[in-house]
Every structure is written in structure tokens, then in C-alpha cells.
TrEMBL record:
PANTHER family reported in the protein's UniProt record: PERIPLASMIC SIGNAL SENSOR AND SIGMA FACTOR ACTIVATOR FECR-RELATED, PROTEIN FECR
Single Gene Ontology MF annotation: sigma factor antagonist activity
Source species: Dyadobacter luticola
Domain FecR protein: 176-275
Keywords attached to this entry: Membrane, Transmembrane, Transmembrane helix
InterPro entries: FecR (IPR006860), FecR_C (IPR032508), Ferrdict_sens_TM (IPR012373)
Protein name, as recorded: DUF4974 domain-containing protein
Organism domain of life: Bacteria
């Protein structure tokens, strides 16, 4: 595609008249410049120019464009340990040279996977299971003084029922809410704390919290908005157990990512303050401020770059961390394996690697209600390629030789 056509497509983008097919063509043209460039620069030069170019693109935050798409283009591809070419600005000032215009292909797939939705299973203290996405609205169960209610918004709420108070009942009972792959859910705990569960996650909690402290246990990923509870003018602590760490809270908003297939437990503070400790080592903890993230190696025997039994704290963009709660995948220099694990959980797909694949870092944003095929089409603008084989995403470095209108067939 020549530069005159590229300028025309950019103008249509700003005018809000760009079609989906033209958008894919523009994305491919932009990425082809980066891949075919013969101009290399130093790391410092790249960092200086990349910010200018990124801000100048019409797709950045949609500052001037009215075009609406479920996929924010992942224009910023970075090959690890490779020299990076200066990218082009809006088709006006071209900083890179191109030897040949590569063939542009549009990927289509016979098989596809729908995005996840609100679904979860509630396991009561007596072992009874309720599929929450199949249950009707209203009262689902009564457990001692606590009623389990499903609201019209699909949230599960635990309410203290004064009519069911029995002073003889002092035994603490527990419930578990778990989401499958391709599922997410919201719950309001008995103390008023709100919890968002990501896919393949669970939370275990009492139906009535004791008066001295509130303790829950999670697996997977969860976002908390902790309610402030006081007794005798003192705040009742709230604790979250995740793997071998304990998060102690007084009243705050934070996110915990503790998936078993991730080597590191990530705890991110959005608002308030929290203290992190190792289970059984209450005197060896760290305090987090808003905007900080604590990293803890899940398996001390594996090499993660983090000292065993120690917390590593760093500053992060909290909006990126909790984007899943707002309905987005948001990648900020995310490696391919981590990205694929996120897709695997949300689309309930197994990921298989076919041969060695180059290391990449991805930057961009995609709505979580986007079909898998569209997500993979955007990712294929780099040198990584995919095919869908039943319930598997096959990752390969072999591009397809098919024409633009021919679907990728499974081998």
C-alpha cells in the first residue's frame, strides 16, 4: 500500500468513516513499516522518539478520532534484544525506509471461541452447589442468620436476617464461590465488602464474620473493595490469604493475582493501605502505598528473579492491573506467555506452542467481549501466528500461505 492511500485511510479514521476491513489494512500497513525498516537506533533514541510517535497516532486515547472499535490496535511491538526502528508518524513524517511492501493477509478462522461471561458456582456449607448463572433472582438459600440473595444485576449478596437469629447457633459456616474458565462474578460478602472474581478463581469465606477479625481465602485473581467495620470504636481487620501470603486490610481497594500457573503472586494497592506478610512469619512484612505492587515468588524452588521469601515492591499503573474488572485486557509490555495464559483462562482454551517462538512484549487494550478470532488477528500483526484447533490455540512462527479470503484450516 502506498503512502497516499495510507494518508487517505488515516483521514477516514479521524473522520470516523473507516470500515473494519480498512482498519485491518491500515494496521497491517503500519506494522509492516516497523518490521521492514532498515534504520536502527539506540535504546535512548528509541525511547525519546517512540513517546512522540505514540502520542501523535490518532489511535492513542482517541484524542481526535471518533472511530469506535472493540479492539485498540497493538501498534507498539517490541522484539526483545533486537534493534528497534523509529516508527512513522501519521503518514506525514516517515522516519523509516521500506525496501518492499509485503503481502498483506487477512486472517479468518473456521473455528472460534466466544468470550467469557458472568458465571459461577456457589458451594454452601452443607455441600450443596448452586450454579449462580442459572439461578433466578431473589433468595437462594438461608444459612443461620444469613440469607443468600441474587440481585437483578446478577450480583450475589449476603444479608443478615434478623428473623433467623438463633443465639444457640454459634458455629461458623463457610461458603465458596468459584468461577470456571471463561467466567467472572461479583459478590457482596456478609460485612459489605465487594469482591470481583476473575476467570478460574474462587473465594472461601464465612457466612457470618467473627467480631474480632475477618478472614477470606482466594485462589486465582480477585479485586476487593473492603468495607470498614468497627467494634468498640476499633476497626475490625480484614485479611486475605492467597498462597503463602496474607494481606491485612483496614479499609481499601486492592487486587490480588495468585493463579497457580503464575510463578509470582502480585498484590496491587489502588486505594488505602495494606500490609503483606508471609504465612507464619507475621514479623516479616511490607506496607504498600497506593500505586504500589508487591511481588512474591510462589514456589521458592523456581527462579523468578525475586529473592525467596521476600517481597519486591514496585510502582505500577493500577488501571492496567484492574482493567479486567472494567471489561478489558490491557497489556503494558506483557510477554507472549503471560498474554496467552490470560487468553486461555478467559476463552477456556488450551495453549500449545509449535516450535520456538520469538520473545515479544505487547502494549495495547482489547475489550474482553471480543471474539477470540478477532483478538488473534490483531496479535498476528507481529511475527507470531496462530491457528485454532478445537479447544486449542496453537502458537507458531510459521505464517500462513493462504490468500486473504481463504480461512485457516486446522491441521
Amino acid at each position: 500500500m502506498d503512502e497516499s492511500l495510507a494518508k487517505e485511510l488515516f483521514q477516514k479514521y479521524k473522520d470516523g468513516t473507516l470500515t473494519e476491513q480498512e482498519m485491518a489494512l491500515l494496521e497491517s500497513w503500519y506494522t509492516s513499516h516497523a518490521k521492514s525498516s532498515t534504520v536502527t537506533i539506540t535504546t535512548n533514541e528509541m525511547e525519546q522518539h517512540l513517546d512522540q510517535v505514540w502520542e501523535s497516532l490518532p489511535v492513542h486515547k482517541d484524542k481526535t478520532a471518533s472511530y469506535s472499535s472493540p479492539v485498540k490496535p497493538l501498534f507498539k511491538w517490541v522484539a526483545v534484544a533486537a534493534s528497534i526502528a523509529i516508527l512513522a508518524t501519521i503518514g506525514v513524517n516517515i522516519f523509516i525506509r521500506q525496501k518492499n511492501t509485503p503481502k498483506i493477509e487477512t486472517v479468518a478462522m473456521v473455528q472460534d471461541a466466544a468470550p467469557g461471561d458472568n458465571r459461577a458456582k456457589l458451594t454452601l456449607s452443607n455441600g450443596t452447589s448452586i450454579m449462580l448463572h442459572e439461578a433466578g433472582n431473589g433468595k437462594l438459600a438461608q444459612q443461620g442468620q444469613t440469607a443468600v440473595i441474587k440481585t437483578k444485576q446478577g450480583e450475589i449478596v449476603y444479608e443478615f436476617d434478623m428473623q433467623e437469629v438463633d443465639s444457640r447457633t454459634k458455629k461458623i459456616t463457610y461458603n465458596t464461590i468459584s468461577t470456571p474458565k471463561a467466567g467472572q462474578y461479583q459478590v457482596k460478602l456478609p460485612d459489605g465488602t465487594r469482591v470481583w472474581l476473575n476467570s478460574a478463581s474462587s473465594i472461601h469465606f464465612p457466612t457470618v464474620f467473627p467480631t474480632t477479625e475477618r478472614i477470606v481465602e482466594i485462589a486465582g485473581e480477585a479485586y476487593f473493595e473492603v468495607a470498614k467495620v468497627t467494634r468498640d470504636s476499633k476497626r475490625v481487620p480484614f485479611k486475605v490469604k492467597a498462597g503463602n501470603q496474607v494481606v491485612e486490610v483496614l479499609g481499601t481497594r486492592f487486587n490480588v493475582n495468585s493463579y497457580a500457573d503464575e510463578a509470582i503472586i502480585q498484590t496491587t494497592l489502588v486505594e488505602g493501605s495494606i500490609k503483606l506478610e508471609l504465612a507464619g512469619k507475621e514479623n516479616q512484612g511490607v506496607l504498600l502505598r497506593p500505586g504500589e505492587q508487591a511481588l512474591l515468588a510462589r514456589d521458592m524452588k523456581k527462579s523468578t528473579g525475586i529473592a525467596a521469601g521476600m517481597f519486591e515492591v514496585k510502582q505500577v499503573d493500577t488501571k492496567t492491573v484492574i482493567a479486567w474488572k472494567e471489561g478489558y485486557f490491557r497489556f503494558n509490555n506483557v510477554g507472549l506467555p503471560e498474554l496467552m495464559r490470560q487468553l486461555s483462562r478467559w476463552y477456556d482454551m488450551e495453549v500449545v506452542y509449535e516450535g520456538p517462538v520469538k520473545e515479544y512484549e505487547f502494549v495495547g487494550q482489547i475489550e474482553r467481549n471480543t471474539k477470540l478470532s478477532k483478538v488473534l488477528q490483531i496479535l498476528e500483526l507481529g511475527d507470531v501466528h496462530f491457528r485454532i484447533d478445537n479447544k486449542k490455540i496453537v502458537v507458531t512462527n510459521q505464517p500462513s500461505d493462504l490468500n486473504p479470503n481463504q480461512p485457516i484450516m486446522d491441521k
